[in-house]
Amino acid sequence: MKFKNIKKIAILSTGLFLMASCSEEFLTPKTNGTILESDYYSSEVEAFSGLTAVYDVLGWENLLGRIVGLNSASDDFYAGGGGSGDISEIQRWDNYTLNSTNSPSAEYWKKGYSGVFRANKLLTKLPDVPMNDDVKARFTAETKALRAYFYFDLVRFFKNIPLITVPVVQADYYTIPQATPEAVYAQIEADLIAAIPDLPMTVNGATEGGRLTQGAAKALLGKVYLFQNKYTDAAAQFAEVNGTPGATSQYGYKLLDSFADLWNITNRFNSESILEIVHTNKGNWGDWGNVAGSEGNILNQMIGPRDYVARTADAPDYVSGYGFNPLSVDLYNAYSASDLRRSATVADLTKLVTDGKATYGAGYNDTGYFLEKFVGRLSDRPAGAGSPELNWPQDTYEIRLADTYLMEAEAIVKGGGNTARAQALLDAVRTRAGLTSIPATDENIFNERRLELAGEGQRWFDLIRTGRAASVLSPFGFVAGKHEILPIPQNELSNTILKQNPNY
Length: 504
Known about the structure:
The protein is mostly helical. The chain is 40% helix and 5% strand.
């Protein structure tokens, strides 16, 4: 999507894409027709469809998926795939040879601004929609929080971006300047602070799973503060989300007893889920002629071992995948033998082959280790939903409780807060993993995040925001002062006043 084509996206946001990517009970297809913008948002039902369209962008997936890209850019995973040229945009982020025409930038820019434009359009329409005031307030809050989410991704990926909070006219397309990162962060904070009071404390997962709550917005706000080194503010937000370590918080959040249960695809909207990106195999849209039309999760297919064949009855029923994101040996070795998370995180194909239980085809960067959390299984294989490899129904966690426990512990330690509470938060995460207590130091908390959140798309951002990226990633080609952010897509620079990020 070129930046100058935002009018098209704004119009689409008013009614063309009403198939949502949240709970299929909450968000279902409403219409396939085009409704003129001047006639739209004339009722609560139509406003709800507009809100659905904003949520929809959260789950957009294709072969340049966010988690695959972020994993590849980190030290814990390789790009993998079938060869050094397999999805070159991901390969170039893996080895830090990316540029403005060959990188995931265009896809991530498009996704972020599509969400922003849809949110902006809905926010201008909602005040005039005849509907219940409380419902309108909730819709407005959800839309502002979603806009904050999209801008948070955009500013982290690109840093120097246009800040657009209202629909723009065509004459302005080419002259919209880049804002300072500080201005973007201020807008993100303002949107979340405004949204929190009008969001519900909890939602019913069976009917509204995937919709934003106060807890989700506070967790996101805490994360926004943490990325700006506002440690006291971050710790305060996380404390409200987390409650007493190990107990059930005011929002109903509680660590699951078993780490492995987090990855059961039927265990949706569980007590540890705070912000969940929802996928379904019931859309019947996605096929290889329309990859972007899928409401399913492509990640499961992307990271599965290539040419997998189970040779014994007790072998895992993995589906043969495309071999992306093999784990580094260093990450595997970072898990102790007693860490209960290892078997739930790592699919050890080397051992399966050695034991005669399975065979697979070694792909590019093969290490023998794959991401167990998301690898597709025959027992979960979607049926009757376009191309099944594009329509896996497994959700992913954008924020979950163990994540906020560790972020609060980090904020406390760095901000000089209550170290006893930081220790309790770290201990709760480690106890579930079957591990003993270790001191709640910044380095120990950072390392715990690596093991707890492996493969969930958090590691690269953690390296960048803590200033560790240059030392950890330089062996992979990372250049300090350049690769902390992505290049702005070349198409966005054409005929606009946007400037490329430094050193690209």
